[in-house]
Specification:
This protein is an all-alpha fold. The protein has a single domain, classed as Helix Hairpins (Orthogonal Bundle), CATH 1.10.287. The chain has 4 helices and no strands. Helix 1 (3-10) crosses helix 3 and helix 2 (21-46) packs antiparallel against helix 3. The protein is globular. The protein starts with a helix and ends in a 10-residue tail after the last helix.
């Protein structure tokens, strides 16, 4: 499945209020990212990482990322390309290890 196909598919299973769609999806994204961190934290504590559980949570992050992107009107593959272009520009200019949004 291609990224844009996945993004389009997410529309078929998205259930949330239309008037709060961006807020809802952003909160879902950060919530799921927190669950990724929690799985990792528990793996450190228990010295036994639940890899399948971690992968499942990362997949949930991907779903919400697709939904946030869709709510913002940007297709998933364009989002990937924008990020790649930004990081390649930083690499070429020797600023990839710096800090700040606009370097």
């Amino acid at each position: 499945m291609q990224a844009n196909e996945y993004q389009e598919w997410t529309r078929t299973v998205a259930i949330y209020p239309d008037d709060q769609s961006l807020t809802y999806t952003i909160l879902g994204l950060v919530s799921e990212a927190g669950e990724v961190a929690d799985k990792w934290k528990k793996g450190i504590r228990d010295k036994n990482l639940d890899v399948d559980g971690l992968i499942s949570e990362v997949a949930d992050v991907a779903w919400y990322l697709a939904r946030v992107s869709d709510e913002l009107g940007v297709d998933f593959e364009s989002l990937f390309q924008m990020n790649r272009d930004k990081l390649m520009s930083r690499k070429l200019r020797g600023t990839i290890s710096g800090s700040g949004d606009y370097r």
